[in-house]
Amino acid sequence: MRRVRDRIDRDYAQPLDVEALARGVHMSAGHLSRQFRAAFGESPYSYLMTRRIERAMTLLRRGDLSVTDVCFAVGCSSLGTFSTRFSELVGISPSDYRRIAVGDAAGLPSCLAKQVMRPIRNREATPTRTHLASQA
């Protein structure tokens, strides 16, 4: 399962699906999904989208790319799906995040910004996200 997770981490911007990941480790897609969920607590697709959203957050904080450019840069093929998933994980839309986070992350070392600004599953709120959402 680590090989699958490592491939997702490495190739998140490439077109990946569960079937392709499963072929890479000689499993059926269903078996891979069950094993991945048992090992990491979420489906391979969910893990992939979280990685993509994390990278999107970094690109949006830079402020030099449009939301559409970021969507395609992280491997998403649908702006609507990207925006919906981003809003679910982060709590605000990508455009609001871009507008707000450029100032909030200014001056933070990238390693600290990544930890503080990381998307959280199950809509758990942290002071930073509460702060970001209240400014939206």
UniProtKB/TrEMBL annotation:
Pfam families: HTH_18. The keyword Transcription applies. InterPro entries: AraC_XylS_family_regulators (IPR050204), Homeodomain-like_sf (IPR009057), HTH_AraC (IPR018060). Residues 2-100 form the HTH araC/xylS-type domain. It comes from the Bacteria. Coiled coil: none annotated. Keywords: DNA-binding, Transcription, Transcription regulation. This is Helix-turn-helix transcriptional regulator. The keyword Chaperone does not apply. It comes from Actinoplanes aureus. PANTHER family: HTH-TYPE TRANSCRIPTIONAL ACTIVATOR RHAS-RELATED (PTHR46796). GO terms for molecular function: DNA-binding transcription factor activity; sequence-specific DNA binding.
